[in-house]
Known about the structure:
Helix content: 25-40%
Distance between the termini: 26 Å
Amino acid sequence: MDERKRDSMIAYLRHRMDDFGISPDDLATFLATEPAGSEMGRYRSAGGDTWSGEGEVPQWLRQAISAGQSIGHFELQCGALAQPATRTGADWKNDPFAGSPLARSSHR
């Protein structure tokens, strides 16, 4: 990633953190207290349901797959946050990343 894109992404993330009232200290505290992968499944629905990938496939995932959705769509990336953002009040209508992979996983 070139330096300009990196700086742009940092500015965007800082702006979104401000929208949700997340300080850099909040983020650092969360990362320091939550071991990687704790209470996190391998797959997560838009509603926050998770599945580890072991045992019986949960109903929400079976339904999505039956409807034609790829299981990979629900797979979490390494280092993903355990819960989706639930705060309200952010204005997403002018989001420059709307429709991109960045927008799909961060605010649904």
